[in-house]
Write a structure and sequence with these properties.
Layout (H helix, E strand, L loop, with lengths): L23 H9 L12 H17 L7 E6 L2 H11 L5 E5 L2 H12 L7 E4 L16 E5 L1 E2 L4 E2 L10 E5 L16 E4 L11 E6 L1 H12 L10 H8 L10 H16 L3 H21 L3 E3 L10 E6 L5 H10 L15 E5 L6 H16 L8
Parallel strand pairs: 2-3, 2-4, 4-7, 7-8
Antiparallel strand pairs: 1-9, 5-6, 8-9, 10-11, 11-12
Helix pairs in contact: 1-7, 2-7, 3-4, 8-10
Protein name: phosphoserine transaminase
Catalytic activity: 4-(phosphooxy)-L-threonine + 2-oxoglutarate = (R)-3-hydroxy-2-oxo-4-phosphooxybutanoate + L-glutamate; O-phospho-L-serine + 2-oxoglutarate = 3-phosphooxypyruvate + L-glutamate
EC number: 2.6.1.52
């Protein structure tokens, strides 16, 4: 493998779409509390204060209206699909599917024996589609940002009585959203919130809480680990049903505090857009590269770039990895000659510029440098 000249290299080579870059300052902070926090009971006051700080911070970040609550639990955002199927969908859901993760929620709903077949509105990856207003559906669901493709969708209510349930996993902490336009905005913290995985958070409206309580009281069997009502009861005590990852909570708190101290969600979105704008401009000006997603839907946090047949994107990604620039491979199921970049707020714009310079160097020096 070729060795990229050191003077071209980014200071930090992590460009993954999740798990994503964790700021070194947050890692140092975690180390500083390692013996006082890690390995202690999550039912005791130090951890409860930590959870309370996160819940309050999320309410502040998104200016949650009165009655909205921050609920959390173990399992990650993928578990929340099952939670929603068990405790938020009464009879039938409608889904906007424009990538892998929106499709997985629709599949979970289709497999549930107690629900009618979901209504699925689907387009090919690279574009966006939302569920159409439909009184037969009591939940409308889609992703705010489809991590697999780098397509961002609007968040707005359908005009029906259905709950609006949004997967915010790769958008939360980087893209603004109006809480009046959703009933549930759920996400895991290992992307824009620059933490680790294993937890889910859900910003829930009074209507969503009422729905969950009504379904739970109806006699439908819901496992405790998939009960939004149980998760809420514990969240109100600033704890989770079972033991959470304390390092994930601490790193989440550190990123959330950093964003709030620097101006809130507008600061985070500005940093992410500065990063993705660099990549899209580079691709549009490149003879062999093209942004994959239609212009109106291009993500501010995840950029996917197609290459023509003159370029082997797999080889580029492999060589970058050999040089400690990691996780720029495309989503595996797309099967495209493509690179995908996670460009969340924790990623520095200068490192993005250097990343693109390294790719240019590889493309213009295919054989000049001997293998390392």
């Amino acid at each position: 493998m070729r060795k990229i000249p050191p003077m071209l290299m980014p200071r930090d080579g992590r460009f993954g779409s999740g798990p994503a870059k964790i700021r070194p300052e947050a890692l140092a902070s975690l180390a500083s509390v390692g013996t006082s926090l890690l390995g202690t009971s999550h039912r005791q006051s130090p951890v409860k204060r930590l959870v309370g700080t996160i819940r309050e911070g999320l309410s502040e970040l998104y200016h949650l209206p009165s009655g909205y609550e921050v609920i959390l639990g173990n399992g990650g955002a993928s578990q929340f699909w099952d939670i929603a199927v068990c405790g938020l969908v009464e009879q039938r859901s409608a889904h906007g599917v424009f990538g892998e993760f929106g499709g997985k929620f629709a599949t979970a709903s289709a497999q549930a024996p107690h629900l009618a077949d979901p209504i699925i509105h689907e387009v090919a990856p690279g574009s966006v589609v939302l569920p159409q207003p439909d009184d037969d559906a009591d939940v409308h669901a889609w992703a705010h940002n489809e991590t697999s493709t780098g397509a961002a969708a609007p968040v707005r209510r359908s005009g029906t009585e259905a709950l609006t349930v949004i997967d915010g996993t790769s958008a939360a902490g980087a893209l603004n959203v109006d809480p009046e336009q959703f009933d549930v905005y759920y996400f895991a913290p290992q992307k824009a919130f620059a933490s680790d995985g294993g937890l889910w958070f859900a910003l829930c409206s009074p209507a969503a809480i009422e729905r969950a309580e009504r379904i739970a009281a109806s006699g439908r069997w819901i496992p405790t680990s998939l009960s939004l009502v149980e998760a809420r009861a514990n969240s109100l005590k600033n704890q989770t049903v079972n033991t959470p990852s304390l390092s994930t909570l601490w790193l989440m708190k550190e990123q959330l505090s950093w964003v709030l101290e620097n101006g809130g969600i507008s600061f985070a979105e500005r940093r992410a857009r500065e990063n993705t704008d660099q990549v899209y401009t580079w691709a549009e000006e490149h003879a062999h590269a093209t942004p994959f997603v239609e212009a109106e839907y291009r993500s501010p946090v995840v950029a996917t770039i197609d290459f023509d047949d003159a370029i082997d994107a797999t080889k580029i990604a492999s060589t970058l990895r050999h040089n400690s620039i990691v996780d720029v491979e495309p989503y595996r199921k797309l099967g495209r000659n493509q690179l995908r970049f996670g460009l969340f707020p924790a990623v520095d714009a200068e490192d993005v510029s250097r990343l693109l310079g390294c790719i240019d160097w590889l493309l213009t020096h295919p054989e000049e440098t001997p293998d390392a």
